Amino acid sequence: MYFPPIGSDTWESISPNSLGWNVDNIEALNDFLSQNNSKSFMILVNGRIVMEEYYNGHTAQEPWEWNSAGKTLVSATTGIAQQNGLVDIENKVSDYLGTDWTNMDLEKENLITVRNLLTMTSGIDDTKQLVIKSNLTYVADAGTRWAYGNVFQKLMDVVAASSSTDFESYFNANLKSKIGMDGYWNEGTIFTIFHSTTRSMARFGLLGLNKGTWDGEQIIDESFFTECVTTSQSINPSYGYLWWLNGKSQFMVPSEQTVYPGSLVPNAPADMVAAMGAKDQRIYVVPSKNMVVIRMGDASDPQNPNFAVSGFDNTLWEKINAVIN
């Protein structure tokens, strides 16, 4: 396993030929990505770059938005705060933010733990995505309903309150700088969005592939990271701690309460876990292949930008499989 050095543009590569890939199909993969509004694409194997492509005028030096793929940065930072003794995810959110942080009765508010925020099971109304107190209203008891929403960002407040600093400073010191990422958090329309270069997104994917370890240093406790990428509740088995999980028996998607049978991305390896954001921002981590795949760009379908999983994933993996298998 290779880890690119901190503070350097140096990154070892390995050729697709040496891995026995079907190089004749790489052009079709690149055409698909370019035609579907991608800005960048990378594949790492054992940490080394096998493919690194930029499309439609984008460059390696330009940052781009992670959108909800950045939720995984928040879960990782929450885990680091826990291992540093600042947070216990089993505790009530109000232990850190004080009571009355929602627009709910105290009895119902007190049911919401940090873990509920990590698993999208807070029971808070998911139809209002702007996280202000008046929108944080009761729908169900915490732990009884899975619904994808932006209330996860209260985790950022939990980390800030428990560390007596702002979230970005804590994240920078305890995660970003440790693995050599660039990037910044920017206030979006409805929540704070992380922006970085493609290689920095790949660095975080590589950290995930190695279960929170970076070149011998345990950045995120391995047991916590394992929880991040394991089914976290019984309602949506395809969801961990703000990570999406492939290969499960059923899944749910944002903005719906429908339960769909089958795997999240049928064409992808069953052990794949993913950070997924609107407009098809993706980190795919595939332990069985020691592989990390990154896609950044505009929405593959501008009429349907999607909050997370979309049909784009399955078609993309069909193209990837034609190269790697």
From TrEMBL:
<dbReference type="InterPro" id="IPR001466">
    <property type="entry name" value="Beta-lactam-related"/>
</dbReference>
<dbReference type="InterPro" id="IPR050789">
    <property type="entry name" value="Diverse_Enzym_Activities"/>
</dbReference>
<dbReference type="GO" id="GO:0016787">
    <property type="term" value="F:hydrolase activity"/>
</dbReference>
<dbReference type="Pfam" id="PF00144">
    <property type="entry name" value="Beta-lactamase"/>
</dbReference>
<keyword id="KW-0378">Hydrolase</keyword>
<protein>
    <submittedName>
        <fullName>Serine hydrolase</fullName>
    </submittedName>
</protein>
<dbReference type="InterPro" id="IPR012338">
    <property type="entry name" value="Beta-lactam/transpept-like"/>
</dbReference>
<feature type="domain" description="Beta-lactamase-related">
    <location>
        <begin position="40"/>
        <end position="182"/>
    </location>
</feature>
